[in-house]
Amino acid sequence: MTTELNGMRPTGRGPGRVILVIYCIFALAAGARAALQIATKFDEAPLAYALSAVAALVYLVAAIALSRNSRTGRRVALVSIIVELIGVIVVGLLSVFDARAFPDATVWSNFGQGYGYVPLVLPMVGLFWLHRTTKPVTAPAGA
Questions:
Q1: Domain enclosing residue 122, as ranges
Q2: pLDDT averaged over consecutive 10-residue blocks of the chain (143 residues)?
Q3: Considering the domain boundaries, does residue 5 fall inside one?
Q4: Residue 4: inside a domain, yes or no?
């Protein structure tokens, strides 16, 4: 019994499972943080808090897409991870060069500094994993 999609490796297996767990943790952490900030002090930094909510949604979509072993799942994962990478770079640059626009941090502020730069590294790892699992699975010799 095989779980490959047209010979491609599943994205949510092996090391992909660790990546998937990290995306789930970040979706939960960013979502809880954004919900609390929006509910209690949205007027203090609306852009920052809204961007934290967007980040949480992007992490959630990426996690769900990576857990699927389908062409659509791979496409959605690719798009969401690219959006994540663009977001962390743009928000990272804006938060460094226009700190007044971000009176409170987002997940992506300063390139994810508050989260050990994982938000900057995670999309690169995700893109690498998508690329790696797209390569066809080869049968072992003698099979």
A1: 15-134
A2: 56 82 96 95 91 96 92 94 97 91 87 94 95 70 56
A3: no
A4: no
